[in-house]
Every structure is written in C-alpha cells, then in structure tokens.
Amino acid sequence: METDTTLIGHSIGTHLGELVGWPAERIAALKEEHDAINAAASSDMQPQDFLTCESLQFAEQRSADMLRYGEHGSFQRAIERSGRSRQDLAREWRERVRRAGEDDPRSQQK
Asked: Where does residue 21 fall: left (phi above 0), alpha (psi -120 to 50 degrees), or beta otherwise?
C-alpha cells in the first residue's frame, strides 16, 4: 500500500488493513487522508470556467503532478496547496456527504 500511487489502491489497502486487524488509529488516519483528498479534489476547488488561462494552467499542473507523483501523490499536493489541514478538509468532506444524504429523496423513503 505504501508504494501504490492510485487512490483505489489506497482504499483497498485500508479496507484490507481493517480486515486483518490494523490498529484503529492507523485506519482512522488513512480514512481521514482519503476524505481530505476527496475534499481537495472536489469541483469547488477547481476553476469553474474551463476556457480560461487559469483553468488550462490548473489542468496542466494537475496532469504534470499525476505523471510525476502518481494519482495519490498528486492529490496530496492538492491538499498542501489548499493551505488547509487534512483534519479540516476531511471534516468538510464528511459534512458534505452527510448533507448530500439528507438531501437525497431516497433517504426520506421508509
């Protein structure tokens, strides 16, 4: 898991770690990182107008980071560029997921 550069690899590794009994603190840290990555990679942290020089520069930087650092490393850099802590980003992501669940009409059916 430490050498996998993909997000899916880290997700699978975290799940397998849970199954084989890794310490709860390690699992919590991996899940927090995953949630922080989701927040940092979300659409509201990316340019909305993809026809501007800024958005093209953003896409070029993201692609260069993906090639150089892999998917996981690229998103870790996005966290760093955000200037926010992993904990803050993870908390924001969890809140967005919670609100989305409340807004989902399927969650109202019982």
From this structure: left
pLDDT tens for 30-71 read: 999 999 999 988 855 566 677 888 888 888 888 899 999 998
**Of 83, 91, 100, 102, nearest to 28 (Cα)?**
91
Distance (Å, whole) CA 46 – CA 7: 19
Query: Among 95, 27, 40, which residue's Cα sits nearest to residue 72?
Result: 40
Contact of 1 with 19, CB cutoff 8 Å = no
DSSP code for 52: S
* DSSP summary character for residue 2: T
Main-chain dihedrals φ then ψ at residue 28, nearest 5 degrees: -60, -40
Reduced to 3 states, what is the DSSP secondary structure of residue 82? Answer: helix
Rounded to 10 deg, the angle between the 53-82 and 24-41 helix axes is 160
